[in-house]
Write a structure and sequence with these properties.
disordered N terminus; alpha+beta
Length: 240
């Protein structure tokens, strides 16, 4: 698949590295295709690889029980899966599930550790990325508790659209309910409200984003805050 402006087929973290560090890291990466529904790591499982999505994305799900699940993070071409390895921990704190199929780069945990030791630039970049991830996790907790389902659904659709590089998404009510930690009836009402405002079109699991600007306005402030933080900390290299 050839890259395009809307589907760059790159990973922003890797692209942010200096040329020599980037070339060295890529030499040890393996190109793979992630399959929808594939479990990359189980909760409590060993992290054997770091994944850098290109045109794919992965949900990180807190799995308290079979009926108590909540998506706490989503990783696409802006980031990486395997952040505990940055801290020297090789155990996954959550279930990692492929939500968007497509290409990714995979790096063995041992090789990742070696690059981390040898590259000050990689260390600095991933420390900043870890700061962003922690900040987003804190916001997810507050967002889930305080914000209404309609605003949270709008935010989640925008996050998915960013990583899918497409206005067309396939998401069932059951899946959305699990991702947002609400009842299916709540998802139905929220989706109907967004559709009534002509922000999305929804039919049998197929969602089309009709008005992205309107969807941003309908979402809670967490979406804009997360994007602003990423640009400031990762793209510009500032933690202020």
């Amino acid at each position: 698949m050839k890259p395009s402006p809307s589907n760059p087929m790159t990973n922003h973290l890797i692209d942010s590295l200096p040329h020599q560090d980037r070339v060295s890291l890529l030499a040890d990466c393996e190109a793979i295709d992630l399959v929808f529904g594939e479990v990359i790591t189980e909760h409590g499982g060993r992290i054997q690889h770091v994944h850098f999505p290109l045109d794919s994305f992965i949900s990180q799900i807190a799995n308290l029980s079979e009926k108590e699940q909540l998506e706490v993070a989503m990783v696409g071409s802006e980031g990486m899966l395997g952040t505990p390895l940055i801290l020297g921990v090789d155990v996954s704190p959550c279930l990692a599930l492929v939500q968007g199929a497509g290409p990714a780069l995979r790096l063995p945990a041992v090789a990742f550790g070696r690059h981390l030791e040898q590259s000050p630039a990689l260390q600095a970049l991933l420390k900043r990325y870890l700061h962003v991830v922690m900040h987003q996790l804190f916001r997810v907790v507050a967002c889930t508790h305080f914000h209404q389902v309609e605003a949270r659904l709008a935010r989640w659709l925008l996050m998915t659209q960013d990583r899918a590089h497409s206005d067309q998404l396939h998401l069932t009510h059951e899946f959305l309910a699990m991702m947002l930690g609400v009842r299916r009836a709540g998802i139905t009402l929220a989706a109907m409200a967004l559709q009534a405002r002509e922000l999305i079109r929804y039919h049998r699991g197929d969602i089309v984003v009709l008005d992205r600007v309107g969807l941003i306005e309908a979402s809670c402030g967490c979406y804009a805050s997360d994007r602003s933080l990423y640009r400031r900390v990762i793209t510009k290299g500032s933690t202020a």
